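Bit of a strange request maybe. I'm writing a small parser for structure token strings and I need a real example to test against, not something I typed by hand. Could someone generate the tokens for this chain?
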Amino acid sequence: MTSPISVQLYTVREAIAADLPGTLQRLADIGYTQVEPWGFVERVEEYATALPAAGLTAPSAHAKLVGQDLEPIFAAATRLGVGTVIDPHVDETRWVTREDVEEIAAELGRISDAAAEHGLSVGYHNHAFELENLIDGTPALEVFAAALPKGVVLEVDTYWVEVGGVGAAELLARLGDQVQFLHVKDGPKTMDDTEQVAVGKGTMPVRDILRAAPQALAVVELDDHAGDVFTALRDSFTYLDGVRA
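Reply from user aminoacidic:
Good idea to test on real output. This should exercise your parser:
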């Protein structure tokens, strides 16, 4: 393997609720070396023990940032060795006008300044609506990217980009080095999460996506899955390991 592959732990949320250390070990046994936690502030000490025990690191993590009390989040991220904290969702109603979108960018810039004092970076993760909403003919996510202060990064969820009607590889080429993380997922490009499948088994142009953003860490995610999620994660790892070898 020439490049590490991460996995968003929301994918295995039910398993983590039942057995956090055991779940992390199962992911490590598949071959993952990195994970992307969510809800980590509440379980920070468990993660602080279980991650190194499984030989895993967490270069990125999800936490609501906009409008939140930031100090506990930054403290937990620092405890776990997280480098980038990514806000996974800002309300859809704020992505309609240029003024609102630019204000979100400014808010994340201020949060980034605070995070930098802890040695942390800040990012944003999209859904479909940031692509569906057009501002003067441009997807709101691209308006947002253009307004972002230097240092705030993007985690592009490539599946939701395509569900939103935009070609993910082409978008990544336009955004360039602002993109430091990719959510790599596959399926029929519908809004039904349960139809998502292992990477390489759906209709997403995964190879083109990876070629378009070689600088970005690939983070596997299934929002939901009709079959066994660990089988899907193993199949995803095998496919991506082959593509990036």
